[in-house]
Amino acid sequence: MSFWPVPDVMKDNIYQIAPRMFKNRGINFILLDVDNTIAPYTVSEASPRLIAWVKTMKEAGLELFILSNNKGNRPAVFAEELGLEYVNKAWKPFTKIAKEVLSEKGINPANTAVIGDQIYTDTCCGKWIGAFTVLVHPIEFSNIWLKLRYWLEFPFRLTYKWRFEK
């Protein structure tokens, strides 16, 4: 478990993530964020491209599970469309809900990845449960708060680039 909030991998979007990245690391369970990770805040249904990506991941033997801080019905809508289980109101970066999901499913955190667009929620939660973390670039900056958050995360994104993309 690491308290250093630098992701293990950074990608521009989820579509740059292939199943082999997880399979090569012994990962078979993925906790997936919704808002600005798999869909913009302004979109309320799964795109054909997203549906195809999820299908590819499932066909490779990966189990995806939506873990979202969203308090509304968006996680349920996407979970139903994508054929995934979900939890909303996850309170990331706090780990209680994520640990409960892993415990209920009998999954070891070492065999888990967390994919999200935010360092202070998704990456921290993943690191604190001992999972592999993948940070994607936020899909859109629809308001000033998202831009501010991204700016506050910049030192950790830069640290990743400095350490891993030499």
Walk me through the structure:
By secondary structure, this protein is an alpha/beta fold. The protein has one domain (9-164): HAD superfamily/HAD-like (Rossmann fold, 3-Layer(aba) Sandwich). Helices cover 41% and strands 15% of the residues. The chain has six helices and six strands. The chain has helices spanning 19-23, 48-59, 74-82, 96-105, 119-129, 144-164, and strands at residues 9-11, 29-32, 63-67, 85-87, 112-116, 132-136. The chain has a six-stranded parallel sheet with strand order 1-6-5-2-3-4, with helices on both faces. The longest helix is centred in the last third of the chain and has 21 residues, at 144-164. The two termini are 25 Å apart.
Question: What attributes characterize this protein structure?
Answer:
single chain, 166 residues, alpha/beta, Rossmann fold, six-stranded parallel sheet, 6 helices, 6 strands, globular
Structural class: alpha/beta
* CA-atom Rg in angstroms: 15 Å
Order of helices and strands: EHEHEHEHEHEH
Contiguous runs where pLDDT drops below 50 for at least 5 residues:
none
CATH superfamily: HAD superfamily/HAD-like
Number of helices: 6
β-sheet strand percentage: 15-25%
CATH architecture: 3-Layer(aba) Sandwich
Oligomer: single chain
CATH class: Alpha Beta
How confident is the prediction overall: mean pLDDT? 91
> Number of folding domains?
1
In short:
The chain is of the alpha/beta class and about 170 residues long. It has helices at about 20-25, 50-60, 75-80, 95-105, 120-130, 145-165, and strands at about 10, 30, 65, 85, 110-115, 130-135.
